[in-house]
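Budget justification aside, the reviewers requested a transparent look at the raw inputs and outputs of the sequence design task funded under Objective 1. We therefore reproduce one unedited record. The lines immediately below are the structure tokens for a 494-residue chain.
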């Protein structure tokens, strides 16, 4: 390996490590915000829902697409929402293309007989996908406030009573609640998804919101002021994460968001890796698309302070961290050989300490969010250590898949909104097998994931002849992560 190439590798490797380090520092700052906020007693003006004059009209939107397995559960649950019927309407925004349409129509007809104001809204095409469906329903929505739930979400009967009162503050455009997980303990895959989402819904959402930094409506389990949607420019379908897009446009226009960590809205996690893949792809590509679309508006905005801009940029760069991690992983083996070939470059290898420090920071941050939900006993800490390193390994294993998504987003390559298959999995005994919405084809990335598993096995082996075991744990986690993703994908076909 030539010296020039070695310097290029070192430069790219160091830049990626530096970006990861800045991201970890932003997470550490959010932790400080989170812990400070938890100690303060927050009060806010609220509607008195016991006074009929203060009860606003609410529209609940349920965007669905081929949800045969969960639509009945969804409608039964939504029908239990406690709110004056004269001030509530429900829109089932049904873009389905399969036989579930007929069953949905029959259920809606039954609910209408029970006196519920519920409408079955169909479109001739899926233009704009979910954003298009929400926009279409908004045209005829009677409510001043628009609550949105995806098909796998199960809000409590008192959900509107806990969220609507906060709109008494006329500056608030969105109230977002925390996601819960009805099948958290179904498998290793569901446990690590819950772990990552819990960190987002505690550390990140509270950490940003408590200091007035930008947060995002999470696409579901939240409620919008209709005026805010229109003022921000309405739903747009030019990214795969329309929720993040509209959230930033609204906050750039000075609308405030209220995040309620104490209001949990249970939902179902994907139980099959192909479903998790499609969800991860959409979220990560959408994040990169929104960075491309919005970051300059955030940087140039005159109405927001520097710290909010910094956190906004890091938030929009969230998914791009997978690209940085993937670069660091792939280049770590050439770096190992550079260190042992060019003795005078050995000092450069110390930049790896940035990755170690970043990992320690994330370990500490995630522990505080984990213990706030699971408890801080010694047994819980041991469970946390196992879960953190399992999560870390699998996140590394997803880095190729998510890097492809991020690169497509940054390059502006358009793709269809692929919804995540739902399963109606409520307990360990429920099975996903036979679900007709699952992808039948294996991901082409799997071949590369298998090759990367072998590549990092080679990295582990390299430590022996070079007598340099500094990167051995990292390569071992990469080997396990890519192995998990490959073999789980191979064996979990429908």
């Amino acid at each position: 390996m030539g010296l020039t190439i070695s310097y290029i590798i070192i430069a790219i490797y160091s830049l990626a490590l530096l970006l990861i380090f800045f991201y970890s520092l932003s997470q550490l700052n959010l932790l400080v915000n989170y812990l400070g906020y938890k100690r303060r007693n927050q009060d806010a003006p609220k509607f008195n829902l016991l006074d009929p004059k203060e009860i606003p009209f609410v529209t609940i939107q349920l965007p669905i697409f081929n949800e045969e397995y969960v639509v009945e559960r969804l409608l039964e649950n939504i029908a239990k929402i406690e709110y004056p019927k004269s001030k509530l309407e429900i829109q089932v925004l049904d873009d389905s293309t399969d036989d579930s349409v007929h069953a949905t129509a029959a259920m809606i007809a039954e609910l209408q007989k029970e006196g519920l104001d519920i409408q079955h809204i169909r479109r001739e095409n899926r233009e704009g996908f979910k954003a298009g469906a929400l926009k279409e329903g908004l045209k005829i929505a009677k409510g001043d406030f628009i609550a949105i739930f995806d098909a796998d979400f199960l809000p409590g009967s008192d959900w509107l009573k806990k969220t609507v009162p906060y709109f008494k503050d006329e500056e608030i455009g969105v109230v977002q609640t925390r996601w819960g997980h009805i099948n958290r303990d179904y498998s290793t895959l569901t446990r690590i998804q819950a772990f990552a989402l819990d960190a987002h819904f505690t550390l990140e959402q509270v950490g940003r919101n408590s200091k007035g930094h930008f947060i995002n409506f999470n696409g579901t389990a939240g409620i919008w002021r209709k005026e805010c949607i229109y003022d921000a420019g309405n739903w747009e379908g030019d990214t795969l994460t329309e929720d993040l897009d509209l959230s930033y446009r609204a906050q750039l226009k000075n609308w405030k968001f209220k995040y309620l960590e104490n209001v949990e809205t249970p939902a179902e996690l994907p139980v099959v890796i192909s479903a998790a893949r499609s969800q991860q792809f959409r979220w990560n590509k959408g994040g990169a698309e929104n960075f491309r679309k919005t970051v300059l508006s955030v940087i140039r905005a005159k109405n927001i302070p520097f710290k909010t801009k910094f956190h906004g940029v890091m938030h929009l760069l969230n998914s791009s961290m997978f690209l940085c991690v993937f670069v660091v992983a792939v280049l770590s083996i050439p770096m190992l050989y550079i260190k042992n070939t060019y003795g005078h470059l050995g000092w450069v290898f110390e930049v790896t300490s940035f990755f170690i420090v970043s990992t320690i920071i994330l370990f500490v941050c995630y522990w505080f969010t984990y213990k706030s939900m699971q408890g801080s006993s010694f047994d819980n800490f041991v469970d946390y250590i196992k879960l953190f390193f399992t999560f870390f390994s699998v996140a590394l294993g997803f880095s190729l898949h998510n890097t492809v998504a991020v690169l497509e987003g940054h390059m502006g390559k358009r793709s269809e909104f692929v919804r995540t298959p739902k399963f109606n999995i409520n307990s360990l005994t429920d099975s996903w097998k036979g679900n007709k919405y699952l992808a039948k084809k294996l991901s082409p990335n799997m071949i590369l994931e298998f090759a990367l598993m072998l590549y990092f096995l080679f990295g582990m082996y390299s430590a022996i002849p070079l007598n340099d075991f500094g990167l051995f744990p990292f390569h071992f986690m990469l080997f396990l992560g890519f192995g998990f993703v490959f073999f789980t994908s191979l064996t979990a076909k429908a």
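The chain has a mean pLDDT of 91. The longest helix spans residues 3-38. Computational costs for records of this kind are itemized in the attached budget.
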